[in-house]
Amino acid sequence: AQSVSQHNHHVILSEAASLELGCNYSYGGTVNLFWYVQYPGQHLQLLLKYFSGDPLVKGIKGFEAEFIKSKFSFNLRKPSVQWSDTAEYFCAVNDLGSARQLTFGSGTQLTVLP
Amino acid sequence: ETGVTQTPRHLVMGMTNKKSLKCEQHLGHNAMYWYKQSAKKPLELMFVYSLEERVENNSVPSRFSPECPNSSHLFLHLHTLQPEDSALYLCASSQEQGAYEQYFGPGTRLTVT
């Protein structure tokens, strides 16, 4: 079964710091990859997605993620975080094998200090 | 506005009660999902419906009973729940079942006393 690991459970940064959140998955076949964000008191929203093509994908609010197939990774980055980026971030993987289910990581809580 | 709405937003129920959660999507999608979100744990997929037919049931206890009367509506009927069932229950939809991105509702915060 597919599994998704987000190694950082809680990250605390000051405004303007750079961000990188790790995501690794276990399935070795073809996958679709997603990052979702959940702001305090709000619903899960899609931040960005990778289906195919350029492994560096850009999402909303200045976020980007890089798919490295050889490392089974899809890390999320932002060069300069803002206080409004405080939220929980979830990596999700949809393997295109028989299961075709969306498997989520346990999430990373990002706190940005003003 | 996500296009996926859920009611109620909060629910407190005793272990002997029967209640239902409702989800409605306004996106014209053909697939709908129920997830359970507990603190510090990954989202757990509970049920998947595609074109109103259940296609996935991830070993969910029978005290949770889904219903999908049409492609826009999804219900989760609850009865004789346990305190460990307290969690945020999320509904999602996608264009088709499978590899497409999913759109989530705000969730129902359920507390079982």
Overall mean pLDDT of chain A: 92
Could you give the order of the helices and strands of chain B?
EEEEEEEEEEE
Helix fraction of chain B by DSSP (H/I, runs of at least 4): under 10%
Structural Rg of chain B: 13 Å
Q: What is the first-to-last residue Cα distance of chain A?
A: 41 Å
Rg calc of chain A: 14 Å
Biggest interface, CB < 8 A? A-B, 23 and 21 residues
Oligomer: heterodimer
- The number of distinct helices of chain B, counting runs of at least 4 residues, comes to 0
Shape of chain B: globular
Q: Quick one: how many beta strands of chain A?
A: 12
Strand content of chain A: over 45%
**Main beta-sheet strand count, sense and barrel state of chain B:** 7 strands, mixed
Strand-pairing-aware structural class of chain B:
mainly beta
Distance between the termini of chain B: 32 Å
Shape of chain A: globular
Brief overview, please?
The complex is a heterodimer of chains A (114) and B (113). Chain A has 114 residues and is mainly β.
Question: What would you note in describing this structure?
Answer:
Chain A has strands spanning 4-5, 10-14, 19-21, 24-25, 31-38, 44-50, 56-58, 64-68, 73-78, 87-95, 102-104, 108-113. Chain A has no helices and twelve strands. Chain B is mainly beta. The chains are: A mainly beta (114), B mainly beta (113).
Keywords:
heterodimer, A: 114 residues, mainly beta, 6-stranded mixed β-sheet, 4-stranded antiparallel β-sheet, globular, B: 113 residues, 7-stranded mixed β-sheet, 11 strands
Task: Please give the structural blueprint.
The complex is a heterodimer of chains A (114) and B (113).
Chain A (H helix, E strand, L loop, with lengths): L3 E2 L4 E5 L4 E3 L2 E2 L5 E8 L5 E7 L5 E3 L5 E5 L4 E6 L8 E9 L6 E3 L3 E6 L1
Parallel strand pairs in A: 2-12
Antiparallel strand pairs in A: 1-4, 3-9, 5-6, 5-10, 7-8, 8-9, 10-11, 10-12
Chain B lengths: L3 E4 L2 E4 L4 E8 L5 E7 L6 E7 L2 E5 L6 E7 L2 E7 L7 E8 L8 E2 L3 E5 L1
Parallel strand pairs in B: 2-11
Antiparallel strand pairs in B: 1-3, 3-8, 4-5, 4-9, 5-6, 7-8, 9-10, 9-11
